[in-house]
Description:
Layout: H1 3-6, H2 9-15, H3 27-35, H4 43-53, E1 58-61, H5 68-78, E2 89-92, H6 96-109, E3 117-120, H7 126-135, E4 139-142, H8 144-152, E5 163-167, H9 169-174, H10 178-186, E6 193-198, H11 203-212, E7 217-220, E8 231-237, H12 243-254, E9 259-263, H13 266-277, E10 283-286, H14 292-303, E11 309-313, H15 314-317, E12 327-330, H16 337-344, E13 356-362, H17 367-377, E14 382-384, E15 402-403
Parallel strand pairs: 1-6, 1-7, 2-4, 2-5, 3-4, 5-6, 8-13, 8-14, 9-11, 9-12, 10-11, 12-13, 14-15
Helix pairs in contact: 4-5, 5-6, 8-10, 16-17
Amino acid sequence: MTAHARLEDNDEEILGPSGFDGLGLTRESIRAVRAVGYETPSPIQAAFIPLAVSGRDGIGQARTGTGKTAAFVLPALERIDADCLDPQVLCMTPTRELSEQVAEEARRLSRTRPVFVATCVGGKKINQQIAALQKGAQIIVGTPGRVIDLLNRGLLKLHTLKLVVLDEADRMLDIGFRPDIERILKQCPSDRQTLLLSATIPPPVERLAQRYMRDPERVNLSADQVVVHTVDQYYVTVDPRRKLEALVKLLFHVRPRQAIVFCRTKRGADKLHSRLLTRLPHIAAIHGDLAQSARDRAMKNFREGKVRLLIATDVVGRGIDVSGVSHIINYDVPEFSDDYVHRVGRTGRLSSGDIGMAFTFVANDEGDQLTGIEMKINKLLDRFVVPGYEVEERKRATTVLSATPSADSAPGNERWQNDPDLEAFTPAPKKPELPEEDFGEGLE
């Protein structure tokens, strides 16, 4: 029965038509989505919600930034028995930040129901999480490591679960959570519903689904367009010894409204952060070795616009969901092509409707990695020439276009015109922009 049919006549008059009518949602859910300002479901929501509310196991594949969280949170809320305070839904994510975002979305969308959500992640005081569980929580959102910890302590019981959600499953397997996930799933009721969502479904995720899901129905909205079309993507040829110089000149040229610079390692992120900190205010770094309080503070300041340049690693990259990001810079080529998809998905969601921009720094010996990315996204990246930065490069086997957008055309450029924050990037007359010793070694 459709949601519209399940609404009472007087409720339809009060609520008016909703884009979420017909997806199988109850009156409470439609009220909630209207209250938070959702008007039209995204493609993954429109396709996945009816599957999820049917009670079947489901796999949802869609690129980042398409509304996957609400696509499983709304059906999860439909499963909750408000009279029972035992855990009924368990959602596992790869990072603390993503767990916090999912939990917050669950709280926002449960405003029409008496639902309690507990966040169980490492890096936070476990006593507070234990207290939340003891008070009663129907929805548990957390990272596999902390969930295992609570299970070992006998403080979390899974026998009452109705639904298990694996969010960003490929990333959880990438960073070594497979043993924990399997151990947790083995303790869940066999008649549970299982939902798995991710931007990519590599073989390890496929094997996990075959082993722990029952004839799952698939929704794949990423096959034809892996990377969002609202992002212009370029590669920049760099000298590994002069990558910092390339980054500085690129920032000065494109003048991003808000940007994320991705590094491959935590050590690399720290080094880059320390080198830029003396030159650019409103900058922060975030990676897995930082204390949770520092990570929370960096993300809070980034969301509020107090931090305009965030240096991050892939481990926490998927917990960054900020609509104001205008530029992504891959300072290091991602190790896996799938990571490129997730990195670039952090932009292209500007409320102004502007096109996001993504730049990938590529050294001469990294052509194979670039080709792998292009094969993954089924698109050739245009070359971007940073003004004032030249490097000799070997010819690529594939012919690519030359792209040098002007500073005036860069998204958000108008907000950085005459910006005093960028004065540090202005080259001093007749002097190199950065000391030569800064380029003596790579960040790796």
